[in-house]
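Can you please make up a protein's amino acid sequence together with its fold in token form to help me picture the idea?
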Amino acid sequence: MEDAPYQELLEKAKVDYGALQAKLGACIKEQAQLEKRITDVKQTIVALSKMLGEEFVEEDALGLTDAIRMAFRTQPSQALTPTGLKDRLEQLGFDTGKYGNVMASVHSIINRLAARGEIKHTGTIGGADKPAYIWTGNIAADRAFGMTPRERFKQAHDAKRVREGQHPVHNLRNRTPK
């Protein structure tokens, strides 16, 4: 039996595999850059809204877990303590005041994300030996529920707009025929 055709196929498959891995790496890098840019623009919107006395409520549809993911993902190389994470959420414009004991929720979510491998404990920070965590970049963990955080946000945001009668589908249903 001649192995040359199989060897040729194997070599081609290895080259294809390497190219696909490189393309995936570039896509992940681009995703991180886009998320950073989105966060920067959102912070600008939050600051301008406050300056103009307007309320910016886009994050209302974003749950605390996804907001915490966003806080880690937008600073992937910076370790965050639970208190630092709360401060980062507020920098991003997330209303932590609507939670009775936000720190208890933050600690629970940190434990859950660490168990899933989305973040990892990196030691302690500061004189009080506060535990610190860092984003792992575990994309598979992001997709555990079949939707990206952004897709879950959009779904929740659309549902909120329907409830409030602001969604285009809702407006079509209530339109009177001519």
Observations:
- The chain has one domain: 4-173.
- Residues 169-173 have pLDDT under 50 and may be disordered.
- The helical segments are 4-51, 64-73, 82-91, 102-116, 139-142, 149-163, 168-173.
- The first strand starts at residue 119 and ends at 125.
